Amino acid sequence: MAVIKPFKGMRFDTEKAGELKTLCCPPYDIISEEQRKAFIAQNEYNVIRLELPKEGDDVYVRAGEILDMWRSKGVLIHEDKPAIYIYEMEFNAYSKRRSVKGIIARVKVEEFSKGIILPHEFTLSKAKADRFNLMKATNCNFSQIYALYMDSEHTTLKTIDDKSKTDAQYQFTDDDNITHRLWVCTDEAVIKKLVDDFADRKLYIADGHHRYETALNYRNYCRENGISKEGDAQDYQMIYLVDMEHPGLIVFPTHRMVRDLADFDKNIVLESCKEYFDIERFDSVGNMNSTLSKQYKAGKKAFGFYCGKGEWYLLTLKDISVMDSVLPELSPASRQLDVSVLHSLVLEKTMGIDKENMANQINLTYTKFFEEAIMAVDKGEFQCSFILNPTRVTEIRDVAAAGEKMPQKSTYFYPKMITGMVMNDIGVD
Fold this sequence. Notes:
Elements: E1 4-5, E2 10-12, H1 14-17, H2 33-42, H3 48-51, H4 59-72, E3 76-78, E4 84-93, E5 96-108, E6 117-118, H5 125-138, E7 140-141, E8 145-149, H6 155-163, E9 170-173, E10 179-185, H7 188-197, E11 203-207, H8 209-224, E12 236-243, E13 250-252, E14 255-258, H9 266-273, E15 277-282, H10 288-297, E16 302-308, E17 311-317, H11 322-326, H12 332-335, H13 338-348, H14 355-360, E18 364-367, H15 370-378, E19 384-387, H16 393-401, E20 412-414, E21 424-425
Parallel strand pairs: 6-11, 8-12
Antiparallel strand pairs: 1-5, 2-3, 4-5, 4-10, 5-12, 7-21, 8-11, 9-10, 13-20, 14-18, 14-19, 15-17, 16-17, 16-19
Helix pairs in contact: 4-5, 5-8
C-alpha cells in the first residue's frame, strides 16, 4: 500500500530572503500575470519565479538557473535532518472560521492500475507538459499534491494534533485571510509511527492530478535515461495527506455558465427537463443557496437554472434510477453524481453540449463563484448558468475506488495550499 517517508525539505532562509509571507504564493494555475508581477515586485525571491517561470528565452532553463543561484547564496536551505511536516490552514468558509490539518511527506508514486493511489478527475495534456518541463529543469517539487486517506480511528490525526500543540515554527496570514502554519517534525519515533500508519492505506488524489501524472512521467523519464533507478528519490513526490473525515475539509461546487448556443430558449430547456425533473420557479436569487442546500441535505439531485434578472428554476431529479439506463457503462458511484446528472440529462440531452464540447469549453465556462455565475448572465455575457451543490468527499472516494474519473471541474477543494513554505529538492536525501 502507500509508502511515505520523511525528507530534508528545502525552505527559505527568511533572514536572507525576507518575510515568509512575501516569499510564498498561491497555486500557479490560479495566478494572473498581473499577480505574478506583483509578487516579484514585492520580493525578488518569491517562489513564483520557480513555480511559474516567465523569464529568459527558455523559461524552464532559467528557472533552474535561478534555483541554483538561490541555493548557492543560501536563500534556499535544507533541513538538517529528514522531517515530516505538519501543515495547517485556518480559513473562513460558510460563515465560519475553520481549519484543516495534515502532513507533508514524500510519497512513492504508483501507477493508477495498482489501486494504491487513485485519481478522481480527468486532466489536460497542456498542463502536464508544462509541469514536466519544469521538473526536468529543476528536479524539484515546489508545490504539493493534495491527497486524502481513510482512517476510521483517526490515529494519524491524533498523532499530528499532539505534535502540533506548541506554536508553529512558521506561520503567516495571507491576503485572503488564510493562516498557514508549519511544524517541522524530526522525531524519529513519531516519523516511524506516521510511516507505519500508511502501510495498509490507499490514497485518493484530491487536487493536483496534473502534477501526479507528471510525477509518474518524470520517474519513467529518469529511469529510461539512466538518471535514476528503482527506489531512488525520483520515485517519490511531495504530497499533502489529509484525513478524509477531517472536520475542516471543504469542497466547493463548480458552477457551469452557458454561452453562444444557437437558438437558446429557456422555455424549450424547461419543457425538455419536465420529463426528468420537478421544476419550481423563483424570482430572486436570495434564497437559491439555502434552497439548494436543503435539497443537498435531503440527498436530492438538484440544480439552480439561472436565466437572468433574478429569475431561476429549481430542477430536482424525480428518480435517480433513470441514470442506470443513461450511463449503463459507469458504476453507480459515477452515475449518481450531481455533475453526471446535469451533464447527461440537461447539457447533453437538452442543450446539445456534448462531452467534447465541455472538455474544450466551447459553450461552457466554469466558475467556483456563485456571484460570478449570476452576474455574468445579468450582464449578457452568458445565456444561463447552472448552480450546483458541492460533491461529497465520500462520492469522490467511491468514484476513485471504482477505477473511474469524474468530469473535469467536478470538485474544488478549499483552501488551496500555499506554495513555498516547504519544497522537495529531489536531489537531496
